[in-house]
C-alpha cells in the first residue's frame, strides 16, 4: 500500500487498525476516504521532509484527518440546495468527528491534533497553529482539487 519504508513504519499502526481500515469502504470524492487520506499523507510526508519539519506528525495527522465513518453525500446530488446544506454541515463537523475517532484509537501529539482539528480552515474559523497543520491543510485542498474529475464522473455514474 505504501512503498516508502520509512513512511510505512511511521504510520504502520494506523494502517493496521481495523476501524481505520473501514475508511476503504467509505466513498469520498469518487474514491474512498482511505485512498484520499493516503494521498494527502504521502504528499505531506514528502513536503515536510523537504522542509525538514516534523514529517512523522505531518504524515500521521494527514492520514487521520478524515477519520469519519459515514458517507456524507446524499443519494440525490441533483437536488442542489439540499446537497449544499449537507456538504456545508459535514464540512463544519467532520474535523471534530475525525479528532474524536483518532484520539479514541491512537495517542496523538499536539501537532497531530492541530492537523486533524483545523484541516478545514477557512471553512471552520480557527486556523492551524503549527506549520505541519498549515501544510496538511494545503495538501488536503490540493489533493481534493485533483479529485474533482473523479468525483464528477462518480456523480454522473450515479445518475444513470
Ligand atoms: Fe476533511
Ligand atoms: Fe480530506
CATH topology: Hypothetical protein af1432
Q: What shape does the CA trace take?
A: globular
The figure for the number of domains is: 1
Ligand identities: fe (ii) ion
Residues in helices, as a percent range: 55-70%
The SSE order reads HHHHHHHH
Q: Which residues sit in consecutive blocks of at least 5 with pLDDT less than 50?
A: none
Give an overview in words.
With 160 residues, the protein is mainly α. The protein has one domain (5-159): Hypothetical protein af1432, CATH 1.10.3210.10. The protein has helices at residues 5-16, 18-21, 33-51, 55-64, 80-105, 110-117, 131-146, 148-159. α6 (110-117) packs parallel to α7. It starts with a helix and ends with a helix. The protein binds fe (ii) ion (2 copies).
What's the gist of this structure?
Helix content is about 65%, strand content about 0%.
List the helices and strands and how they pair.
Blueprint: H1 5-16, H2 18-21, H3 33-51, H4 55-64, H5 80-105, H6 110-117, H7 131-146, H8 148-159
Helix pairs in contact: 1-4, 3-4, 3-7, 4-6, 4-7, 6-7
This protein binds fe (ii) ion (2 copies).
